[in-house]
Design a protein that fits this description.
- The chain is mainly alpha-helical.
- It has a single domain (9-88), classed as Glycogen Phosphorylase B (Rossmann fold), CATH 3.40.50.2000.
- The chain is 38% helix and 7% strand.
- The protein has four helices and two strands.
- The chain has a two-stranded parallel sheet with strand order 1-2.
- α3 links the parallel β1 (50-52) and β2 (69-71).
- The radius of gyration is 14 Å and the shape is globular.
- The termini are close together.
Length: 91
Amino acid sequence: MRLLLVIPQQTIRSKFQNLSSSPVDNSSRTLIVPWIEQQRVLAHSSVRLFIGHGGLNSVGEAIYAHIPIIIVPGFADQLIMAAKIMEAKIG
């Protein structure tokens, strides 16, 4: 099954920043922070999948961590990266 989902990145960002409360519960399985080192997250043993926009750095980090990838491309080279990931069968 192939799925192409195009969501304006700015819309998502502004909606999240304007929320008065967290969009998810504050359970022990949820951590919301303004920034986190992605390589450390991807290397964690509980990570099973990476969903990203298809930027070169993020894709490289997911490949290095041996994590399957789902790409939600927005613009520029992200569409090409999504096609390459499908071709390589790593996402």
